[in-house]
């Protein structure tokens, strides 16, 4: 990891900071989150908080609008429906022009109090500051799924995605602009950020318990995120089909030779419909599985080719 000398412009004055918070039905957390963010952002007079409401059906938008009317530095974007966390976050990034953009969740699992440390790391020359969760207080299921997910994604991806990373991070203006210029719809920022390169640093923080409300990432959404993560980071799963095909064909050729020899030498045919059936079912299963993998990629190509906008904004108070 490289520690660069402090850029001249960075010490002259405090940077303008934008905090992007994508949220779905987080009404009970918003007041508290805003209060803690306001305290953490006090040293940065030109800071801004941008709430991106991802189609909440609770009181969230009412609270956001109230916070925006009472505080000059609070802004909001309200999407027409639930587009998903990654898209909501990307929409937020597209509407930030600050020197430094910090993204975090709305449920107070990501500590607003870590912001000064993140900005210090930026002042030391890092263009990306990834927040990595330390020892976790989360459920066994979440820890297990997260472990399997990172093992899987790192096995196929060409870039290391540090286990325990999330969308709690700081991005320099330059990096935000590069992300905004990426045309892809199936975004998985945790895979895009290591791909970008630049000087990045990892800071560890203690992931807190969710303050109020339910987790919005259910098993289905997590599987969706995992599929997007893997298919947008690599095409290695497609090669697996080739390897399995090559191995099974070789076994079949060897077995055919063996059966031929037995017939020639002992004049007996190898019997057994059970082995035949198992072989057929196994191959049928592998073929369908691989078709599913190919289908994932074809589906993503289809989504990209359609070139629809990432999200649709219902309302916003951005200038
Ligand atoms: N979220 C969102 N859209 C969604 C799902 C989640 O904007 O479709 C927000 C959610 O309100 C929270 C953040 O994304 O601010 C992370 O979600 P959650 O806390 O449920 O996930 P976890 O932290 O358990 O992985
Ligand atoms: Mg959470």
Description of the structure:
With 319 residues, this protein is an alpha/beta fold. It has a domain at 17-146 and 157-214: Spore Coat Polysaccharide Biosynthesis Protein SpsA, Chain A (Alpha-Beta Complex). The protein is 51% helix and 15% strand. The chain has helices at residues 8-12, 27-40, 60-70, 85-94, 115-123, 140-156, 173-181, 189-196, 219-233, 236-266, 273-306, and strands at 17-23, 48-53, 74-79, 100-103, 128-133, 165-172, 200-205, 313-316. It has an 8-stranded mixed beta sheet, with helices on both faces. Helix 2 runs parallel beside helix 3 and helix 6 runs parallel beside helix 9. The longest helix has 34 residues, at 273-306. The protein is elongated and about 90 Å long. The structure holds uridine-5'-diphosphate and magnesium ion.
Brief rundown of the structure:
This protein is an alpha/beta fold. It has helices spanning 8-12, 27-40, 60-70, 85-94, 115-123, 140-156, 173-181, 189-196, 219-233, 236-266, 273-306; strands spanning 17-23, 48-53, 74-79, 100-103, 128-133, 165-172, 200-205, 313-316.
**Could you estimate the helical fraction of the residues in percent?**
40-55%
Tally the beta strands.
8
Q: What's the shape?
A: elongated
Spatial ordering of strands, largest sheet: 7-5-6-4-1-2-3-8
Bound molecules: uridine-5'-diphosphate, magnesium ion
Please give the largest β-sheet: 8 strands, mixed
User: In CATH, what is the class of the domain at 17-146 and 157-214?
Assistant: Alpha Beta
What CATH calls the topology of the domain at 17-146 and 157-214 is Spore Coat Polysaccharide Biosynthesis Protein SpsA, Chain A
Order of helices and strands: HEHEHEHEHEHEHHEHHHE
CATH architecture of the domain at 17-146 and 157-214: Alpha-Beta Complex
Distance between the termini: 38 Å
SS-based class: alpha/beta
The chain-level mean pLDDT equals 88
What proportion strand?
A: 5-15%
Number of helices: 11
Using only CA atoms, what is the Rg?
Answer: 25 Å
Low-pLDDT residue intervals, each spanning 5 or more residues: 1-6
């Amino acid at each position: 990891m490289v520690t660069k000398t402090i850029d001249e412009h960075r010490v002259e004055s405090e940077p303008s900071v934008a905090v992007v918070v994508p949220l779905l039905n987080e009404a009970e957390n918003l007041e508290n989150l805003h209060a803690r963010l306001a305290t953490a952002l006090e040293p940065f007079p030109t800071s801004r908080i941008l709430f991106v409401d991802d189609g909440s059906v609770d009181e969230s938008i009412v609270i956001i609008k109230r916070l925006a009317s009472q505080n000059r530095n609070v802004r909001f974007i309200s999407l027409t429906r639930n587009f998903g966390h990654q898209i909501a976050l990307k929409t937020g990034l597209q509407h930030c022009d600050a020197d430094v953009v910090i993204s975090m969740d709305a449920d107070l699992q990501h500590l607003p109090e870590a912001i000064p440390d993140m900005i210090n790391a930026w002042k030391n020359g890092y263009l990306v500051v990834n927040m990595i969760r330390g020892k976790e207080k989360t459920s066994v299921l979440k820890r297990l799924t997260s472990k399997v997910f990172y093992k899987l994604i790192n096995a196929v991806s060409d870039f290391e995605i540090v286990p325990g990373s999330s969308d709690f991070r700081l991005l320099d203006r330059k990096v935000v602009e590069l992300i905004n210029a990426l045309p892809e719809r199936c975004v998985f920022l945790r895979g895009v950020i290591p791909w970008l390169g630049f000087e990045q640093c990892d800071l560890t923080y203690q992931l807190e318990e969710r303050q109020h409300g339910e987790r919005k990432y259910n098993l289905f959404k997590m599987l969706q995120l995992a599929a997007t993560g893997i298919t947008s980071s690599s095409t290695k799963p497609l090669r697996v089909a080739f390897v399995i095909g090559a191995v099974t064909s070789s076994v079949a050729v060897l077995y055919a030779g063996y059966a031929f020899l037995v017939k020639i030498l002992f004049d007996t045919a190898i019997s057994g419909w059970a082995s035949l059936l198992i072989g057929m079912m196994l191959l049928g299963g592998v073929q369908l599985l691989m078709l599913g993998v190919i289908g994932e990629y074809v589906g993503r190509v289809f989504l990209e080719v359609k070139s629809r906008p990432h999200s649709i904004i219902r309302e916003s108070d951005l200038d």
